[in-house]
Amino acid sequence: MLAQCGGSGWTGSTSCVSGYFCSVLNDWYHQCLPGQATPTLPPPVQSSTSLPPTIPSSTTLAPLPQPSVNGTELIFGNLYTGCTVAGTIAITFDDGPFTWTSALIDSLNTAKVKATFFVVGRMYGCIYQYADVIKKAYDSGHQIASHTWSHANLSGANSGTINTEITRLETALKKILGIRPKWLRPPYGGTSASMLSNMRTLRYKVVTWNLDTEDWNNLSVQSSQAKFNALNNNRDPKIIPLAHDALQSTAQQLGPWIANWANQRGLKAVTLSECMGEPIPGGQYDIVGQPEPRDGTWTC
Ligand SMILES: [Zn+2]
């Protein structure tokens, strides 16, 4: 059993015993691992003067998915945990966009699967630095949904905090994509009656997951894969796997593996709204405008 040594809300010891070092797995879980610290942590958020290389022009991307008028939109303020449409799987990635997200999108597109990205404004990176990555995901037909601005636990938050966490990310997605997302995954899976009430007011459907890869918990890629393989006798598990594109091993190994696993089992990997039988794109977004040109407000 490896000891926790920090993270959001952690009040215990932040040091490790001899021979171990404190590894920041993510902002809510730091764990004592054997050996010496190595510089593998995500780099800090950089200023907008050092933008990453831009993605090739969107003219080379696949066309937008064809809208479907079929389906019934689900209910704002309700909590959902699994798919309902037979033969579907909704692969989900949280905590991006980050360094690895763009290549993951390429892998998903090559596998001809759709996924859903629950994005944050500022965590590992700043959303405005990865605007082209989000645009690529959106233009490829993946669903973009909210994971709050700063990865806040909304379960005990007051309405003012919730409102700020939601609307600040909405502002970014309006600028970058011209949409307002209608789905939220609460950070830490944190829900409460008051939180769901706020989500109803703010017009969000709330989803957690029904298969946790535990990539966030430093589970090996092989151990995460075993969770899928354990579904052997359940040919239609209607799963919504939880994974994190902000983690390199997930973006480069586990994510593409899940896509191929779904394809090989004959499951259709679709966006969250599609696996819920919702109309596309009406169940996913409000269209609130056109993408805006980058200006001085695109900062975190
Ligand atoms: Zn998260």
UniProtKB/TrEMBL annotation:
Domain CBM1: 1-33
BP terms from Gene Ontology: carbohydrate metabolic process; cell wall organization
Family annotation (InterPro entries): CBD, CBD_sf, Glyco_hydro/deAcase_b/a-brl, NODB_dom
One GO CC annotation: extracellular region
Pfam families per UniProt: CBM_1 (PF00734), Polysacc_deac_1 (PF01522)
Molecular function via GO: cellulose binding; hydrolase activity, acting on carbon-nitrogen (but not peptide) bonds; metal ion binding
Membrane topology type: Lipid-anchor; GPI-anchor
Region (Disordered): 43-64
Subcellular location: Cell membrane
Cofactors: Co(2+)
Database matches in PROSITE patterns: CBM1_1, CBM1_2, NODB
Residue stretches of biased makeup (Low complexity): 47-63
Stretches assigned to the NodB homology domain: 87-270
Keyword annotations of the record: Carbohydrate metabolism, Cell membrane, Cell wall biogenesis/degradation, Glycoprotein, GPI-anchor, Hydrolase, Lipoprotein, Membrane, Metal-binding, Signal
Protein's UniProt keywords contain Lipoprotein: yes
UniProt-recorded name of the protein: Carbohydrate deacetylase
Naturally occurring in which organism (per UniProt): Coprinopsis marcescibilis (Agaric fungus)
